[in-house]
Write a structure and sequence with these properties.
Keywords: Signal
Largest sheet: 5 strands, antiparallel
Protein name: MD-2-related lipid-recognition domain-containing protein
Radius of gyration: 19 Å
CATH topology: Ganglioside M2 Activator Protein, Chain: A
CATH superfamily: Ganglioside GM2 activator
Pfam families: DUF1091
Organism: Drosophila yakuba
Shape: globular
Number of strands: 8
CATH architecture: Distorted Sandwich
Length: about 180
């Protein structure tokens, strides 16, 4: 009986170590404005404070405000032999989804990854610059490893931002899940 309890404890310990070791690590971010007279990135970077604490910050200056029609195409890609589609490739009317958050739960999940660290917390019109400030790895760890169980690997979160039917910006966010 004592050996059985020790075996159960070892299995439990190995399971907990596996759960604790899952981590998101930011690897890169790339932001491109396709029409610099409409919008441009003032900054878009990862900042590493120490080995374990990194955060993402970006600011988009909007020059033709107010913006009343916004669509977002986002896709999740996993690196196999180059980046290949993985699970999601969705286009949504951002103004509509932000008015009715339950209309697209998948977009709601991904929007929730940066909502608390952004001033993009209301629906259209947008008459101010868009900021995502100091989005930490630890917050994404809670969201990605807690809610959904993604396999370990390297990922790309690709998003194209459309205003009035024209692609205005692309944000590529690279991270690894280990």
């Amino acid at each position: 009986m004592c050996k059985f309890i020790k075996l159960i404890n070892i299995i439990l310990l190995l399971y907990l170590v596996k759960e604790i070791s899952t981590a998101v690590e930011f690897t890169n971010v790339k932001c491109n404005s396709w029409n610099k007279t409409f919008a441009d990135f003032e900054y878009c970077h990862l900042k590493s404070i120490n080995r374990s604490f990194k955060y993402l910050s970006l600011k988009v200056n909007l020059y033709k405000v107010p913006i009343t029609k916004v669509k977002v195409n986002f896709s999740l890609l996993k690196r196999y032999n180059g980046y290949k589609p993985f699970l999601y490739n969705i286009t949504v009317d951002a103004c509509k989804v932000l008015r009715q958050p339950k209309s697209n739960l998948i977009f709601g999940f991904f929007y929730g990854l940066f909502k608390k660290h952004s001033n993009m917390n209301h629906t259209c019109p947008y008459d101010h610059d868009i900021i995502v400030e100091k989005l930490p790895t630890s917050f994404l760890n809670q969201q990605i490893t807690g809610e959904l169980k993604f396999p370990h690997g390297e990922y790309l979160f690709h998003s194209d931002w459309y205003a009035y039917g024209v692609n205005r910006a692309t944000v590529d966010f690279y991270y690894s899940l280990s």
